[in-house]
Amino acid sequence: MNPWESQAMAHNFPSDPSPAVGKNQSTHSRLQSRQDPIIYPGLYAPSGVDIMTVLFSVFARPDPKIELGPVDCSAALTVSNLDLPGSPIIYANEAFAKLTGYTIKEVVGKNSQFLHSPQSKASSQSSLLDQQVAAIQQLDHAAAARDEIQLYITNYKKNGQKFTNLLSMIPIRLPDDETQYSVGFHVAAD
Ligand SMILES: Cc1cc2nc3c(=O)[nH]c(=O)nc-3n(C[C@H](O)[C@H](O)[C@H](O)COP(=O)(O)O)c2cc1C
């Protein structure tokens, strides 16, 4: 076993909040539904975004400057389309929804700048902290230069709670796709 495997095995997960299989719902029937032999494109991607290919493109990028370290499925992720006006989020995962309190539906189609201010307050330049203004400028420059960047930025959850977001923003291209995307990795660092 390599070091990360032993670390993974020793990890203390909080007790599983999901209810045990009910009396009327046998394990057998749950398994049966998973064993359906008809596999069709999109079965595992109802969002339409092939996140495996996105992550592969991140990890196989030619000139990495940021060390992301290991990434597991609990990582809060967004993918934005930099070629569309306003660089909207085209994909956000459940972990991002959990981190920010916004639903996936609420964030897809929006620029991530809704995180700069509490929901009730308009994100005017004057309402931003100096640290935010500096970070936003850095993000702007990095996005324009198609450069990757990692920084701390003060953000707000939907409920108004302030948090320090350790944001890594990585531009990628997907195979057979001219579109320029950017992948955001988000984690509360406080
Ligand atoms: C993939 C991606 C993820 C981003 N994630 C965040 C984020 O979590 N928090 C944040 O404050 N800004 C985030 N941004 C930056 C904002 O969306 C925005 O680009 C930046 O604040 C500059 O916006 P403006 O050029 O519209 O002023 C992200 C940008 C991209 C492309």
From TrEMBL:
InterPro entries membership: PAS, PAS-like_dom_sf
Region (Disordered): 1-32
Keyword Flavoprotein annotated: yes
Biased composition (Polar residues): 23-32
GO cellular component: nucleus
Keywords for this protein: Chromophore, Flavoprotein, FMN
Annotated PAS domain residues: 82-116
Regions that span the bilayer: none
Superkingdom as given in the UniProt entry: Eukaryota
Pfam families listed in its UniProt record: PAS_9
Protein name: Vivid PAS protein VVD
Organism: Cordyceps javanica
